[in-house]
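Everyone, carefully examine this protein record:
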Amino acid sequence: MTQTFPKEKLEQALLDPTSVFKAPEDVATQNGLVPEQKAEILRRWGYDALDLEVAEEENMGGGEPDLLDRIVKTLKLLGFEPNLHNSPPTKQGAI
């Protein structure tokens, strides 16, 4: 029987992935989410990680140094290739 991921928990994960998951890899192994939902959670987490990298660049403190790499690797594991070439012209970019 397939386990369903609670809607409220999905909404929370989309707003703040770290409030639901301890690591990007946990998203990939979560039952009850379809690959597209997992990818969207990871993309949003990636955007947060990019924000932290910008903050670090501006001497405001950053996040975990390899977090973005782990997010990209997890997206690839799920079959999603981050589009780094057509990202917006901001410091954060996109994944």
